[in-house]
Amino acid sequence: PFLGRSDQDKRAMINAMGPLWDGNEVWLITAGGVTFAAFPLVYAVMFSSLYTALMLILFALILRGVSMEFRGKVDSPAWRRLWDTCLFIGSAVPALLFGVAFANIFQGLPLELVGQQHYFRGNLFTLLNPYGLLGGILFLLFFLVHGALWLAIRTEGDLHQRAVRTAASSASVLRAIRI
């Protein structure tokens, strides 16, 4: 909603990511499979602890894919606006929640050992603590820089210039917080 000023800009943005967006699902499945194969106990505890966050990420990625497919199906500004909003949500939510998940993993999940089993003592709101939310914002900034650079590579003209400025300003925020 910030870079695409015209319908032509938004179409160019979708075309820039269109051929590659399926990669999200592939690397998520691969990461889960590798974690299960290498560390089955970690997989069991981590995936059950982060189940709600991971399901929200999955639903957001599905929404993202559906919005790219449905946006051009009806020639109506309201229809395109709806799917543009869904595309934004389907892109922002995974970035934020991946950051929340990783920040909580780095901080340490609230686990309790009962016998031989580890139990997660919390819920999604436990994960949305200040440290987790800062991690989510950090990932959102990382993904914003990455997406803006990709868009700058794949486009030209005014949209290219806006993408370069967005990448530079987002990167300067990351530099300001010494990342």
Strand order of the largest sheet: 1-2
**Sheet/helix structural class:** mainly alpha
Order of helical and strand elements: HHHHHEEHHH
Residues in helix, %:
over 70%
β-strand percent reads: under 5%
User: What is the overall number of helices?
Assistant: 8
- Outline, from the CA principal axes? globular
Number of strands: 2
Mean pLDDT value: 88
| Radius of gyration from CA coordinates | 18 Å
Distance between the termini: 26 Å
Largest sheet: 2 strands, antiparallel
Ranges where pLDDT stays below 50 over 5 or more residues in a row are none
Short description:
It is built from eight helices and two strands. It is mainly α and 179 residues long.
